[in-house]
Write a structure and sequence with these properties.
Elements lengths: L1 E5 L2 H19 L4 E5 L2 H14 L9 E5 L1 E3 L9 H13 L15 H15 L2 E2 L2 E2 L3 E3 L25 E5 L6 E5 L1 H4 L5 E4 L6 H5 L12 H8 L3 E6 L1
Parallel strand pairs: 1-11, 2-3, 2-7, 7-10, 10-11
Antiparallel strand pairs: 4-9, 5-6, 8-9
Helix pairs in contact: 1-2, 2-3
The structure holds ligand LXAUTJHC.
The site of the ligand O=C1O[C@H](COP(=O)(O)O)[C@@H](O)[C@H](O)[C@H]1O has 11 residues, from helix 2.
Function: Hydrolysis of 6-phosphogluconolactone to 6-phosphogluconate.
GO molecular function, one term: 6-phosphogluconolactonase activity
Protein name: 6-phosphogluconolactonase
Length: 232
């Protein structure tokens, strides 16, 4: 695991995006299967991509999938897909057939199974499980990642690809990629910023242990190729 300390969040997102374009160039062949996260960090990233990367990324080569989704309709301001659609896909005219969304409006258990199948159908397999060309992960101020929270640690080693989770405070249902799929040989790019995350960031380099037993610590300790982009 590497940590890149940058002077501000925009610089961190630019360096992360250069890493993404390098991965795209290395793969060469289309399509490039990218899993997106949601939340505030993703909003900043989408705005930057539209402002500065409109002509610098081969958008047509990308196929978009999600790390997690809140179980709400796409029109809800909480929807991770809705946010990406408004801030990225519409401004860049991304074709609908390149977007593989999790349907947050459907019954969560059935949708988690359906999406696991959709991902399996489109992606190459590694260790009999789908593998993405890149996963952009987020980390919350409680050290959750994807929608795997400190009280749903069992989802880190769940053998399914996607399953149902629940936010510990709001009790909102979520559909999340499991730790097993996150760790299935995909490069992980992880932008993490903000005053409210300072305490989490301080522990990012620490190994997963009984005294550091958070979802983020588990993923970062087990990943073969993970880079965190943060501020000084
Ligand atoms: O709820 C979520 O939170 C995490 C972190 O989001 P942020 O707002 O702290 O940037 C995000 O990665 C995840 O996709 C989202 O559903």
């Amino acid at each position: 695991m590497k940590i890149e300390y940058c002077k501000d969040s925009k610089t961190a997102l630019r360096i992360m995006t250069e890493h993404l374009t390098q991965l795209m160039q290395e793969k060469g062949l289309e399509p490039f299967n990218l899993a997106l996260s949601g939340g505030e960090t993703a909003k900043q990233m989408f705005s930057l991509w539209v402002e500065e990367y409109r002509d610098k990324i081969d958008w047509n080569a990308l196929r978009f999938f999600w790390v997690d989704e809140r179980c709400v309709p796409a029109s809800d301001s909480d929807s991770n897909y809705g946010q990406a659609n408004r801030l990225l896909f519409k401004p860049l005219h991304i074709p609908e057939e390149h977007i593989h969304r999790i349907k947050g409006e459907k019954e969560p258990g059935a949708e988690a199974m359906r999406y696991s199948w959709e991902v399996k159908e489109y992606l190459p397999l590694f260790n009999l499980m789908p593998t993405f060309d890149c996963i952009i992960l987020g980390i919350g101020n409680d050290a959750h990642t994807a929608s795997i929270f400190p009280n749903t640690m069992e989802l880190l080693s769940d053998s399914r690809s996607y399953t149902v989770s629940q936010h510990p405070a709001s009790h909102q249902f979520r559909i999340t990629m499991t730790g097993t799929l996150i760790l299935n040989n995909s490069p992980l790019l992880i932008p993490v910023f903000g005053e409210d995350k300072k305490a989490v960031i301080e522990h990012l380099a620490d190994r997963f242990s009984p005294s550091n037993d958070t979802p983020a610590a588990y993923i970062l300790s087990h990943a073969v190729d993970a880079t965190v982009y943060t501020t000084e």
